[in-house]
TrEMBL record:
Residues 73-197 form the Dihydrodipicolinate reductase N-terminal domain. This is 4-hydroxy-tetrahydrodipicolinate reductase. Its EC number is 1.17.1.8. It comes from Arabidopsis thaliana x Arabidopsis arenosa. It catalyses: (S)-2,3,4,5-tetrahydrodipicolinate + NADP(+) + H2O = (2S,4S)-4-hydroxy-2,3,4,5-tetrahydrodipicolinate + NADPH + H(+); (S)-2,3,4,5-tetrahydrodipicolinate + NAD(+) + H2O = (2S,4S)-4-hydroxy-2,3,4,5-tetrahydrodipicolinate + NADH + H(+). Keywords: Amino-acid biosynthesis, Chloroplast, Diaminopimelate biosynthesis, Lysine biosynthesis, NAD, NADP, Oxidoreductase, Plastid, Transit peptide. One of its GO terms (molecular function) is NADPH binding. The lineage of its organism: Eukaryota, Viridiplantae, Streptophyta, Embryophyta, Tracheophyta. The keyword Plastid applies. The keyword Secreted does not apply. One of its GO terms (cellular component) is chloroplast stroma. It is found in: Plastid, Chloroplast. Pfam families: DapB_C, DapB_N.
């Protein structure tokens, strides 16, 4: 199904023989019916997707130069002891962004010191967080907080960032997303919030939405098989897969979300899916297979991600994007990864 050498890519194959999927696992995603699951929207909110993703007038050469990595920008990575937190710190360090040696974590992590890229970071628990963050923000006025904590902390963290007024990039999924948006919108601060930080995957999703909006019904009558493989710790179906499926539904395909084939067994992931063994603990392999009613035509869309670098790099791009918006005194509002892509200045 998947090729070990293909990572973070999307491909379309025509007229391939129908793939025999393995039997469904017992894991099922929540049934969403035929309603659109829009990656670009939160709740009833819908963000526009346009064909043009060229740089805007405010992304001039001088503005770009003003936020080149290492030019005054500092980040504080909350959740630095986690795999994503560490990956972001490494990506930011490689880009020359200053890492503040302070992070927020759980009560059990309070006082711990985490070493990443030769930097020792002190973790603070829930107590006195406002005092600590205010002090860090005062010392580093161009601070941007990056959040890769846990779903249950999303709303409390957003309220803290909003109260202090510090710009942030929220990569953590979960929590009450409507409340999250309401909190940040009310505070009128700079933020990038996205459930998917992999910029190439976001671009693929945007392209799918454009196709669904402009060519509704193009795949009417086609059948769809969906397989997605993630590390065993991810028990639910991928939000990215649901977003892609919702596009196929608008393109005329009949499909229920609970039909997604979830692969979580390591042996199946290696032998059937083709996940490299070294990435069993961190990967995202997706395959969408469409077949015509008479089975003479098939289309296959595939995007495979090994490791976490794609998300970490996208997060750093989001930080640089936000820093530029702040220096340009752009609108203080919530941005997403489509905005980052549209800017056209990614590394």
């Amino acid at each position: 199904m998947a090729t070990n050498g293909l990572m973070a890519s999307s491909s379309v194959f025509l007229h391939r023989p129908r793939i025999a999927f393995a039997s469904r696992t017992n894991h099922t995603a929540g049934k969403c019916g035929k309603g659109r699951v829009s990656f670009m929207g939160i709740g009833t909110r819908r963000l526009p997707v346009v064909l043009s993703m060229t740089a805007t007038a405010e992304s001039g050469e001088e503005a770009v130069k003003s936020v080149l990595p290492g030019n005054g920008i500092s980040i504080m990575v909350n959740g630095c002891s986690g795999k994503m937190g560490k990956a972001v710190i490494k990506a930011a360090d490689s880009a020359g962004v200053n890492i503040v040696p302070i992070s927020f974590g759980s009560a059990g992590e309070d006082g711990q010191r985490v070493e990443v890229c030769g930097k020792e970071i002190t973790v603070h628990g829930p107590t006195e967080r406002e005092k600590v963050l205010s002090s860090v923000f005062e010392k580093h006025p161009e601070l941007i907080v990056v959040d890769y904590t846990i779903p249950s902390a999303v709303n409390d963290n957003a309220e803290l960032y909003s109260k202090v007024g510090v710009p942030f990039v929220m990569g953590t999924t979960g929590g009450d997303r409507n409340k999250l948006y309401e909190t940040v919108e009310k505070a009128k601060i700079y933020a990038v919030i996205s459930p998917q930080m992999g910029k190439q995957v976001v671009a693929f999703l945007a392209a799918m939405e454009i196709m669904a909006e402009q060519f509704p019904g193009a795949f009417s009558g086609y059948s769809l098989d969906v397989m997605e493989s993630h590390q065993a710790s991810k028990l639910d179906a991928s939000g990215t897969a649901k977003a892609v499926i919702s596009c196929f539904q608008e393109l005329g395909v009949s499909y229920d979300m609970d039909q997604i084939q979830l692969i979580r067994d390591p042996k199946q992931q290696v032998e059937m899916v083709g996940v490299p063994e070294e990435h069993i603990s961190g990967h995202a392999f997706h395959l969408y297979h469409l077949t015509s009613p008479d089975e003479t035509v098939s289309f296959e869309f595939q995007h495979n991600v090994c490791g976490r670098s794609i998300y970490a790099e996208g997060t750093v791009d989001a930080v640089l994007f936000l820093a530029k918006k702040i220096r340009l005194k752009a609108d203080q509002r919530i941005y997403n990864m489509i905005d980052v892509l549209r800017e056209g200045n990614m590394r």
